[in-house]
Specification:
Family: Belongs to the UPF0719 family.
Number of domains: 1
Shape: elongated
Protein name: DUF350 domain-containing protein
Largest sheet: none
Number of strands: 0
Keywords: Cell membrane, Membrane, Transmembrane, Transmembrane helix
Strand content: under 5%
InterPro entries: DUF350
Organism: Nonomuraea cypriaca
Structural class: mainly alpha
Number of helices: 6
């Protein structure tokens, strides 16, 4: 394989993984949007709500961890890696959503209520760490 072929193959793989990662983050964003009152993009952009921002960024960072672990675990097998990234990323999003619902029902920390608050709340920090922990757990399980 020539250097040019190697670089072209690598660039194509990066573009493919990046596309899957971006799609997963968009899906994750809209799942959070579904779980919150109002339009999440407006709440973050216009209202500058720190709770919505923290919960969203932590969830997307967790998806990024899962994507990175899926790429690592693929060991250069592009088709398998892309499929695993898509499936494991979706599983991570589902688990994060279930965790939010469980916290709401069992612990009494409601994402809907947190998003209504104008100042950063302790419950947002707890759910943000939960998102990241789920991302790390899922990522390690992938590896």
């Amino acid at each position: 394989m020539t250097l040019l072929e190697f670089l072209a193959r690598g660039a194509g793989a990066i573009a493919a993984y990046a596309a899957v990662g971006v799609i997963l983050m968009i899906v994750g964003f809209y799942v959070i949007d579904w779980a919150t009152p109002g339009r999440l993009s407006e709440i973050i952009r216009t209202e500058r709500n720190p709770n919505a921002t923290l919960l969203t960024t932590s969830a997307l960072a967790a998806v990024g961890l899962i994507v990175a672990a899926s790429i690592w675990a693929a060991g250069g097998r592009l088709a398998e890696g892309l499929a695993a990234t898509a499936v494991f990323g979706l599983v991570g999003i589902v688990v994060q959503t279930v965790a939010m619902l469980v916290f709401d029902r069992i612990v009494g920390i409601s994402v809907r209520d947190l998003i209504k608050e104008k100042e950063l709340q302790p419950g947002s920090r707890l759910l943000a760490v939960t998102h990241l922990a789920i991302g790390v757990i899922t990522a390690v399980a992938v590896i």
